[in-house]
Amino acid sequence: MIVDLFSGPRGWSEGLRMLDLTDIGLEWDTAACRTARAAGHLTVQCDVAAYPTAPFAGRITGLIASPPCQAWSRAGKRGGLQDQPLVQRAVHDLAHGRDTRAELLAQCKDKRSLLAAEPMRWLCDLRPEWVCMEEVPDVLPLWKQYALYLQQWGYSTWTGVLNAADYGVPQTRQRAILIASRVRKVTAPDPTHAKAPEMDLFGVCLEPWVSMAEALGWVDGLIVNTRGERKTAGGNEFSADRPSWALTEKTRSWVLQTNRGHVRTDGQRQLVNPERQPAPTVTTKTGEQWMLRSNSQAKAAVRNIDEPASTLFFGHRCNEVAWTDGTEKRGITQAEAAVIQSFRPDYPWQGTKTKQFEQIGNAVPPLLAAHVVSAATGIPMPHTSDQLAA
Q1: What distance in Å separates the CA atoms of residue 50 and residue 46, rounded to the nearest whole number?
Q2: Which one, 74, 126, 256, 358, has the greatest CB density within 10 A?
Q3: Would 242 be classed as within a structural domain?
Q4: Is-above-0.85 flag for pTM?
Q5: What domain range is 368 assigned to?
Q6: Considering the domain boundaries, does residue 16 fall inside one?
Q7: Which helix (H) or strand (E) is 368 found in, with range?
Q8: Quick one: average pLDDT of 46-69?
Q9: Strand pairing partners for 259?
Q10: How far apart are alpha carbons 29 and 212 in whole angstroms?
């Protein structure tokens, strides 16, 4: 059995599926639990800090944990950084069989901070074969503390910060990672992509970072022809970069075309998959390139679509993450944000729009998760074509 603490909408679980593994997730948020169940993942809705470890004794192979990062993230109030000594004390005490959580929680400035110590209770009680943990980069010192105790218990460990873009995720999301195993030696997963790939001494070259345009299937030069598939010539055309013509009953004959023909096979014709094809395409009539702006603040991260996105975070800013060409602006959709996180485009997000974006922003990118678990377990990653088919 593999247990996923603070499992959210199941980014880790989608990564496990790439390796033919499954897990059981523990999560308190109702919307995230509904999403997980809709995606076919076994979920227990509960408070992880209050849930007993005894039901899993002697039955657990792997433990995964991504404690809530709001208290630690640079995007929030960062109360967790002030609480770090209390969290480190909780980890120390739990590693030695002493539960001082209630006492320490009363002293925390942010009540969520102590959740980062919670995995130690499970590790101390259950001693799984392997462990994978993820958090924002500022939590790396805490992961190093975990690693010291795990090493004393006979685990091989690795801690460090990984960039999701180095593993095929179209996003330069950096995360502090802990990998541990008591049955094999572990190290960081080998990168598969690089910002500027170079051939090594053995003639091997990594793939370039995956851009947003590539991940989303954006195609340059899409044209809508209103005549459709009729044998006779005629009809009108307009660029798909611009607002659509009025929709009427005749719209069913419209066809998306490029100067290279149609885009995606559907029977004998080629059509664009609407879940992977956003409204704007790579360029606009003004010649300006579309970009993704992370929020409306002056110092917001802005990335061209031929680059990976910056780290996606939403919360109350979910409507501020938007595509722009410098003149026009359109908010990012849930499907687009999910693909940039390396979820499949039809992932069944549940809850309000705000809750869906919150889940997407908080999730572990499944592709990064798969590489981390592969490093922990020794199970090789499938080929890229196999991942896409899945």
Answers
A1: 8
A2: 358
A3: no
A4: no
A5: 2-196+361-389
A6: yes
A7: helix 366-377
A8: 94
A9: 261
A10: 29
Burial class (CB in 10 A: 0-12, 13-18, 19+), 81: middle
Q: Is 50 helix (H, G, I), strand (E, B) or coil?
A: coil
Domain count along the chain: 1
Cβ–Cβ < 8 Å for 376, 179 = yes
Report if residue 328 sits inside a domain. no
Instruction: Report the CATH number that the domain containing residue 78 is assigned in CATH.
Output: 3.40.50.150
- Three-state DSSP at 223 gives strand
In this predicted model, what pLDDT tens digit does every residue of 89-145 receive, in sequence order? 999 999 999 999 999 999 998 888 899 999 999 999 999 999 999 999 989 999 999
Token duo for residue 177? 């990672």
Sign of the alpha-carbon torsion through 295, 297, 300, 304: positive
Between the alpha carbon of residue 139 and those of residues 80, 191, 375, the distances in Å are 9, 22, 20
User: Does 205 reside within a domain?
Assistant: no
Q: Which residues contact 61 (CB under 8 A, 6 or more apart)?
A: 1, 2, 128, 129, 130
Tokens of 275: 């879940």
